[in-house]
Amino acid sequence: MTPTRTHTDILNAAGLTATDLAGGDLAVHSPIDGAEIARLRQTPAAQMPDIIARAQSAFKVWRSVPAPRRGELVRLLGEELRAAKDALGAVVTLEAGKITSEGLGEVQEMIDICDFAVGLSRQLYGLTIASERPGHRMMETWHPMGPTAVITAFNFPVAVWSWNTALALVCGNPVIWKPSEKTPLTALASMVAFQRALARFGDDAPEGLVQLVIGGPETGAALVESPAVAVVSATGSTRMGRIVGPKVAQRFGRSILELGGNNAMIVAPSADLDMAVRAIVFSAVGTAGQRCTSLRRLIVHNSIRAELVEKLKTAYATLPVGDPRDAGTLVGPLIDADSLARMLAALEQARAEGGQIYGGERCDAVAGGAYVTPAIADMPGQSAIVKTETFAPILYVMGYDTLEDAIDLQNDVPQGLSSCIFTLNLREAEAFLSAVGSDCGIANVNIGPSGAEIGGAFGGEKETGGGRESGSDAWKAYMRRATNTINYSAQLPLAQGVKFDI
Ligand code: NAD
């Protein structure tokens, strides 16, 4: 069924007006059909110092607002997002090309992190620590860090902002958001929801608490390079992280880097193959392979390799590729033609490295969009292309004989985001999760590598950057820790028994 709402209808429903969408030189295209849907004004470089100064002023006010009160703003944001879920989800679909349920799922993730952060606003706990000195108490307290830059990628255009912003706000930090230049409209629409929450909150929220800047890498660089920006949370390619990480480190700022992944699944002989097939297909082709946690490498025990590959080919043959707004579609478009070209080039290289390719054919599901059938590349080993993250639906398949070999293959890539094993063997499952198992930030058993819940800390090791966001104690990255010792005695004993009598 062809959707009846126009691009403009969808943008208007999310609160964006004709004035928001025109008058600039940043052309925004929908990956659905390549149509230009807006021309946005970019934030001039000359305005960046003022924007950062506004965030610094906002910090001076916001850090003193009690954390549970800060949580109230995030609670209201969650309410506004609930009300705007359909409208905002449709903009995600329009601008990032996600199928409808994934667009809505992304907004749900925003709502979930708001709920999490509201609870967190009453749980920013520090420890009380036993002091070695009599009549002393030692403790730690957590304080806000300061202005936080949130630089986001196109593929999770709103969820990643909310993971960072919900936490940064309850932790007492103002936020400056630089979304991907490919998805600025979802950012504008998210800010509409935020402004509604702010209007309901009351007047103890300072001006400039959350600001949006529009532009490409140079706009991000202004935030990265400013010593006034205390935290830089940057999500995107490892190429970007290699530039951003050292710049922030150079000025001793704090960075949270969420970079590329090259996620694997090990399928052991005891695996429930039907369940594994469902998990593989969802995690390899969902979001057209454009999740940082997409499954890219399948490491299958040689005794079941042929059978599993046949089952996958059967499943792939029926995958509906098409307009992401259509109810039956499971695979939408790639973000743009460059992305498709990179996928086709990767498949060429895989062929040259001895791979047998199934699928990976360009298709014209909707004129003007970059549509492709997901590919399976049966590889003779973990060659150079398999170790590279290609942000598209390519699944490389390799065989193994012993679990040790499988774990070696799993870990022998530069990236370390997500991983999983399908097995019914307890020893194998536990070994995979142990210190000698997966080296990734996320390691699962009998679940695919993608689709993380917000309750856990999200992020990965090695070239994935080492950052953690979202749940667990990821909030600590947005705060600074102070260790406090209080002497309530009438003596002044020194630590380590040092004597210094005067
Ligand atoms: P990208 O690196 O091209 O861009 C990401 C963001 O960084 C954009 O906002 C961009 O403008 C900005 N940027 C780029 N260079 C910069 C610079 N020098 N200084 C400051 N900002 C700069 O990534 P993309 O194509 O939008 O997204 C896809 C990539 O993101 C994939 O590699 C994917 O794995 C990764 N990703 C990782 C996670 C994670 O949590 N680990 C989540 C989503 C996406």
Automatic annotation (TrEMBL):
Keyword Oxidoreductase: yes
Residue span, Aldehyde dehydrogenase domain: 25-481
Keywords: NAD, Oxidoreductase
CDD domains: ALDH_F7_AASADH
Pfam families: Aldedh
Residues forming the catalytic site: 258
EC code: 1.2.1.3
Superkingdom per UniProt: Bacteria
Enzyme class: oxidoreductase
PANTHER family associated with the record: ALPHA-AMINOADIPIC SEMIALDEHYDE DEHYDROGENASE
Protein family (similarity comment): Belongs to the aldehyde dehydrogenase family.
Subunit structure: Homotetramer.
Designated name of the protein: aldehyde dehydrogenase (NAD(+))
Organism: Roseinatronobacter alkalisoli
